[in-house]
Design brief:
Number of helices: 15
Helix content: 40-55%
Distance between the termini: 20 Å
Order of helices and strands: EHEHEHEHHEHEHEHEHEHEHEHEHHH
Strand content: 5-15%
Structural class: alpha/beta
Oligomer: single chain
Strand order of the largest sheet: 2-1-3-4-5-6
Radius of gyration: 22 Å
Length: 386
């Protein structure tokens, strides 16, 4: 049986990649002899990566679940993926959960005014360096897995050989009930929202979730419609704190404090209850490469309104399970919410489509496609001298 070293964050709370890796590992164990090599956030010490590489090289294939923080950040002079990759002498494949090739301008409040001025003034230099470093990162991989054709196109645009890149959609997780699932009304009562029709956005709070459009829509919806922001901040850093304060301030200024609930981080039991209470999930992200939170809503077969962005359109090209609206358009979103809340047949059709999408993109299917990638890179890779 093929021996696999899965290099990944592992058993971490509030970490979508750790969750993804756990589901994938469970499905892969049917096909491979799997060992987990645990990555940790923001480690700069090269001894750490040499130790990981020593363990990984005992396998036949090394598979990295990649995000920047697990290789010491996105700044080119700090990131350690290239260093790690050059220590690996077995076929090396990475699933890229994000690709931030270009930096954004630093916003006020994120760093000191002086540092912000210097960074923004030198942004073209940083972006050139970042693009060059990303090319080096990808050149040191034998195979690359991404979740969307959009990300594949971004990477190909850097000159990466197309044959090296494979698109495997983000997996839809299995639902493991924690105790007896409550009825919708029981769950709403527990949330102090009895008799309400509930809209929910799942996942960690950040400015890329489109909450502002939902709040604007809520002001034009009946009083019995409430909104759950089902999650908390991923970190307590300056950026996350500033956005949380902005969001709560916006809720107050719109007079929505009695109709909007921010749940904070949800345990599996509380998450199950929130989804039982939810009538419609909202995923109007202005941008996304793939979303574990969205796939969780699909797994629970919820009617979902999602933004017209490439990642969501790709999902609908496979199975049309999302009601699509323009991002940042509260008027269109309001109309879509109204229509869906009053259309039980339409909700049912979306739920059936979610069930189909979940079957076609389960982690069992993701594992099968991933094993084929292992076999491909083993067949194509040059001989390695260990």
């Amino acid at each position: 049986m093929l021996k696999l070293a899965l290099c990944t964050p592992w058993n971490r709370d509030r970490d979508g990649i750790s969750d993804y890796a756990a589901h994938l590992a469970q499905a892969l164990r049917t096909h491979v002899d799997l060992s987990v090599i645990e990555l940790k956030p923001f480690i700069n010490d090269k001894i750490f990566y040499r130790s990981l590489a020593g363990q990984a090289n005992e396998a036949d294939v090394v598979h990295v679940q990649y995000n920047y923080l697990y290789f010491n950040g996105e700044l080119p002079y700090r990131n350690r993926l290239v260093y790690f990759a050059r220590l690996i002498y077995k076929p090396l494949i990475a699933t890229l959960h994000e690709a931030r090739v270009n930096f954004e301008r630093a916003a006020p409040g994120t760093i000191s005014p002086a540092k912000r001025f210097i960074f923004n003034a030198t942004l073209p230099f940083w972006n050139r360096w970042s693009r060059d470093y990303h090319r080096a990162m990808y050149a040191n991989l034998d195979g690359i897995i991404v979740h969307t054709e959009q990300m594949a196109g971004l990477i190909k645009g850097l000159g990466v050989e197309p044959a090296k890149i494979s698109v495997i959609a983000h997996g839809v997780p299995p639902i493991n009930s924690v105790g007896a699932a409550p009825t919708a009304e029981e769950a709403k009562k527990e949330l102090s929202l009895s008799g309400k029709r509930i809209l929910t956005t799942l996942g960690f709070i950040n400015r890329r979730k489109g909450y502002e459009a939902v709040l604007e829509s809520l002001t034009n919806l009946p009083e019995d419609v409430a909104y759950l922001i089902a999650g908390g901040s991923m970190t307590d850093n300056v950026v996350d704190r500033a956005y949380y304060e902005f969001l709560t301030g916006r809720i107050r200024s719109l007079g929505l404090t009695q109709r909007v609930v921010i749940t904070g981080y949800l345990s599996p039991q509380r998450l199950q209850n929130v989804l039982a209470a939810t009538d419609v999930c909202i995923a109007v992200y202005p941008q996304s490469s793939a979303s574990g939170a969205l796939n969780l809503a699909i797994a629970y077969q919820k009617p979902i309104i999602a933004s017209r962005i490439p990642a969501h359109l790709e999902i609908n090209q496979s199975v049309p399970c999302l009601k699509i609206v323009e991002p940042n358009n509260s008027r269109e979103l309001t109309q879509a919410i109204r229509a869906l809340l009053y259309d039980s047949a339409g909700r049912g059709q979306l739920q059936e489509a979610c069930a189909q999408y979940g079957r076609e993109h389960s982690y069992a299917q993701v594992a099968l496609a991933t094993v084929k990638e292992y076999e491909k890179i083993i067949a194509q890779s040059r001989p390695y001298a260990g």
